[in-house]
Design goal:
Number of strands: 14
Strand order of the largest sheet: 3-1-4-5-13-12-11-8
Distance between the termini: 27 Å
Shape: globular
Oligomer: single chain
Low-confidence stretches: 301-314
Order of helices and strands: EHEEEHEEEEEEEEEHHHHE
């Protein structure tokens, strides 16, 4: 039986700008997803990658009509500081979620991605600086003290280009399984000097923190990933799965290969872990594959038989 691929939208909340984190800076992620195959050798994923393109009314034509699209998943890289999603965009994303669409949300430090606050049952997993603070007031202070222009949340997990050791939270979530790892679990993520804050939102009993990072400045642990399983809302809608990630730097080209470059406003010195220990990148690739499979609506899970093999790469 011929199976169709999982249709994934990689979407930023920014317009296409050379000197910013536009979608073309996620080319390695896109290429890796497109290299994956199911057990019959068919493409596992079909990828559309785009930046936000508002129309005359200020709405993005894809996001505001996401519920009418053919996508199975939205991977939302919320990189704005307040104007990245219109009311219409949010409504389209919410309807998509209520139809069972899977959603990854990720952003970065301080107030980056704050437009997600308008995404009910989706954006509530993210903590910001000027609103929707971490309920633990002790965490509402700067962690990364090397970049004084950036305030909390800004957890310092290491230099761009290096790796951080992550701590899976027991019981081990299937998103963090890696049969090729000596421990059977994903151990390494790309590091970043100022990761954002995520946590379990109130009234989300199916959500839990599944991985922790450790600050190289303060030594404190912080949440890297929140996974929220599919549930039914009060209206009987089967909501899609949601993953909230502390930073988009786990996925962007610059943190997979520093030589890919970055916007000129990035001033922190880069590490060289990606050259010294390139094999550690396999962990984030294993996570990306798990993410594509886990977020897929249930009918897609059965069509693709969940098992997938990585195409000869890369």
């Amino acid at each position: 039986m011929v199976t169709r691929p999982i249709r994934i939208l990689l979407q930023t909340t920014l317009p296409t700008v050379e000197e910013d984190w536009s979608i073309w800076r996620f080319s390695l992620l896109q290429g890796y997803l497109e290299s994956l195959q199911d057990e019959q050798g068919n493409p596992l994923c079909q990828i559309t990658a785009r930046d936000r393109q508002p129309d005359a009314d200020g709405n993005d034509p894809i996001l505001s009509n996401l519920d009418r699209s053919q996508f199975d998943e939205l991977w939302l890289f919320a990189l704005d500081v307040g104007d990245g999603l219109s009311v219409g965009d949010c409504a389209g994303i919410i309807r998509f979620h209520r139809q069972g669409g899977g959603i990854l949300t990720t952003r970065d430090h301080q107030d980056m991605g704050i437009s997600m606050c308008a995404l009910e049952a989706i954006g509530a997993f993210h903590y910001f600086n000027t609103r929707q603070n971490d309920p633990d007031v002790d965490r509402c202070r700067a962690d990364d003290t090397f970049t004084p222009t950036i305030s909390f949340p800004n957890y310092h997990s290491g230099s761009n280009g290096d790796y951080q050791v992550i701590q899976p939270v027991e019981p081990l979530h299937e998103l963090l399984v890696n049969p090729d790892s000596p421990t059977g679990a994903i151990q390494y993520f790309p590091a970043h000097p100022h990761e954002g804050g995520v946590g379990v939102a109130p009234d989300h009993p199916s959500a839990r923190v599944i991985a922790l990072g450790t600050s190289k400045v303060s030594g404190c642990t912080f949440n890297l990933i929140v996974a929220n399983d599919s549930t039914q809302d009060a209206q009987g809608n089967t909501l899609g799965r949601v993953v909230a990630q502390s930073t988009f730097h786990h996925f962007v080209d610059y943190n997979w290969d520093i030589d890919k470059g970055c916007p000129s406003f990035v001033e922190e010195p880069a590490g060289d872990g990606y050259k010294r220990e390139p094999e550690k990148l396999n962990d984030i690739k294993a996570y990306v594959k798990n993410l594509a499979l886990w977020l897929a609506p249930k009918p897609i899970d059965s069509e693709t038989k969940v098992a997938a093999t990585t195409a000869v790469e890369r």
